[in-house]
Design goal:
With about 350 residues, this protein is an alpha/beta fold. It has a domain of about 130 residues. Helices cover about 45% and strands about 20% of the residues. The strands form 2 sheets. An 8-stranded parallel barrel has the order 2-3-4-5-8-9-10-13, surrounded by 6 helices. Strands 6-7 form a two-stranded antiparallel ribbon. About 40% of the residues are buried.
């Protein structure tokens, strides 16, 4: 579904199934892959965490085998895999399937996950380690020659990665995060800055490699209908009251802290900006809830302001794929009208 605006490609992605139920996860993931392929999205984000149902590299392998052109966005966290092994996975996918990989570089924000893995370094140190990780991967994937690296976290001596990647198979890198360390890393390694939707829909100045947006969308013919669908999909759950507060005490993710502050702040947010899925721990991103025309208007503003990648928090429901596709098409109608 790649679109063009101002001589720049705008890409649209979906996400892997979030379900923690083994039966629901497998069926939901298969449907997400089928629907993403049917509606011509560009790829799917595959999550990485201790509780993730399926390893992101295996999820990526499944979506490559079961789609025409979907590109896997693999969340890569240094605690789970050595950079040489991660680079080898990228090279293997390109060699076996002729398919690119996009790498979402993450540090992991869950204190419990890090405790389980005995990973005790601090926030900025994790980004320093992630910087070495990405530099090694880019070095190994560059030209197939022997490479060495000496750093604070990794050391390689005469490492050679084969087979060598063709230029069109080179991976794209994303860095998710709102901290200064995340922004500095993204710009230093020529990665896309991956951001959350702002409550006033403002957009920061894009980085040198572009900026992506992670968000959910619930759209319908009217604002009222969209809000009704949203409330039915994410009903209140008294058993979860206070759970997010507890979890956030041990979380040092800057963007999750910002969402948590927005959730608890008594401020005037746009009526379409909705954080209930985040409060219920069903999503890590804000949602836009509104009419087709209003959602398209917000997307138009985001694209005109420099957003060139969208990762949609999507359920395995065909109506949602139809509705978001309709909003995207409406947005480009508006953009093209303005441009003309």
């Amino acid at each position: 579904m790649t679109k063009r605006f101002n001589d720049k490609d705008i890409h649209f992605y979906t996400i892997n199934n979030r379900s923690s139920d083994p039966i629901d996860y497998q069926g939901g993931f298969r449907k997400i892959v089928a629907l993403s392929d049917k509606y011509d999205f560009d790829g799917i984000l595959c999550f990485s965490a201790n509780e993730t149902m399926v390893d992101p590299w295996l999820a990526a392998h499944f979506l490559i085998q079961n789609s025409r052109r979907l590109v896997p966005i693999v969340a890569v966290n240094p605690v789970y895999m050595h950079p040489f092994s991660a680079a080898k996975m990228v090279s293997s996918f390109a060699y076996l399937h002729g398919r690119r990989t996009i790498l979402n570089l993450i540090t992991g924000a869950s204190a419990r996950d890090r405790s389980v893995l005995n990973d005790s370094i601090g926030h900025n140190e994790r980004y320093a380690r992630l910087g070495e990780y990405s530099e090694i991967m880019q070095m190994l994937l560059s030209d197939g020659t022997s490479r060495s690296f000496q750093g604070n976290y990794y050391n390689l001596e005469d490492a050679v990665l084969s087979p060598c990647l063709e230029l069109e198979m080179k991976p794209e890198f994303l860095v998710a995060g709102h901290s200064a360390a995340a922004t500095e890393l993204a710009d230093r390694v020529n990665a896309v800055r991956l951001r959350m939707l702002s409550s006033d829909f403002s957009v920061e100045t894009p980085g040198p490699s572009g900026v992506g947006l992670h968000l959910g969308v619930i759209a319908a013919e009217t604002d009222e209908k969209a809000r009704e669908i949203a409330k039915n999909r994410f009903p209140s759950n008294p058993e979860l009251e206070g759970m997010l507060d507890y979890l956030m005490e041990e979380n040092d993710s800057i963007w999750k802290k910002k969402l948590f502050e927005k959730l608890n702040a008594n401020e005037n947010k746009a009526a379409e900006f909705w954080l209930e899925p985040f409060r219920l721990m069903k999503s890590d991103c804000p949602y836009i809830v509104g009419s087709f025309d209003r959602v398209a208007e917000i997307m138009t503003h985001q694209i005109a302001s420099g957003i060139d990648r969208f990762i949609f928090d999507m359920p395995p429901i065909e109506d949602d794929f139809q509705q978001i596709t309709h909003c995207i098409n409406l947005a480009f109608e508006k953009l093209n009208t303005v441009a003309a």
